[in-house]
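The instructor's notes for this session suggest beginning with a concrete chain rather than abstract definitions. Hand out the sequence below and ask the class to guess, before any prediction is shown, which regions might be ordered.
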Amino acid sequence: MRDPKLIVDDMSLIRGTALLGYPDLVTELGGDADLLLRAAGVPTGSIGNPEAYLGYRNLITAVESAAKVTGTPDFGRLLACRQGIEILGPVGAAARTARTVAAALVAVSQYLVVYSPAIAITLETADDERYTRMEFGILLDDLPEHRHTIELSLGVALRIFRLLAGPDFHPVTVHLPHDPLTPRRDYVRYFGGRPRFAEPFAGFTVRSDDMTGPVFADGDVHDAVRAYLDTVAPPGVQGTVETVRSLVRHLLPTGGLGIGLVARQVSMHQRTLQRRLARQSITFEGIVDDIRRERARDLLRDTDMPMSQLAGVLGYSEQSVLTRSCQRWFGHAPMQQRRLLRGPSGHDVDA
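After discussion, reveal the predicted structure:
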């Protein structure tokens, strides 16, 4: 039978890194983090784990209940101070490859589904072309109260902006869909921009000039991405082929995966890595193709993920490329292969 943990047709999952820092913050505020997480249905082992997923509604329950139990009206903003671009995992690597702040944020918005299909970021020019509007949206219906979760998300977005655009960045306006949870001056101090409450959306209005500038402090961005990569493939712990496979598996959804990026992560020159792989009759391209085939097979069998999203998870820019690849791998189009893998009773069968 299909593992129910892998069924994502309700689009309500988010990576465990979304609650990075939660246990320590709750404990410092006098709460029992384990008790709150259990009550919210969040496995404690998933916290900070880029390989684990939890329900987005469960995340909301954990955040909102912690704010209430600890009596902390700015809980979401405080938790955001303990997070940054590293929680996005491979999506952060996509931002790392961008030349400008705008391109980095477009990459984040494009690949955010890899982090969570439950949320989205959109960028558009405001009525006054001097300004750009970034809107954060939750793509789920009938949500419980989630004011602190919104402020957590905007706080993390602010930290990512400052990593990309520079530490002096501040939005012109902060848009919040709820009434203030603390005095207005706290929001001005935290975000550095003018807060507007009871707005029809959550997000920022920023200067378009800030968006067109180059990514700031490239080394800091690179360090953040390396910190994530080190958690999935610590240098020296695995053999070269195993390390490369692990890195490919995690970076695949970025669409910008190349041997140069992987070679830098394992502290080798690109040609040195190619030679080491060749000694085992392996190529980098072959590893990427094998990982894609394995991931495609697992996702077709174990999830109801739409084909457009599945193509993105595999690092393809177009669904038509996924169709051609499935024909080459399995001899069938994706939907037909999904039916064959599940079998008549929902059980897995050999491809």
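Then share the key points. The first helix runs from residue 22 to 28. Residues 148 and 221 are 27 Å apart (CA to CA).
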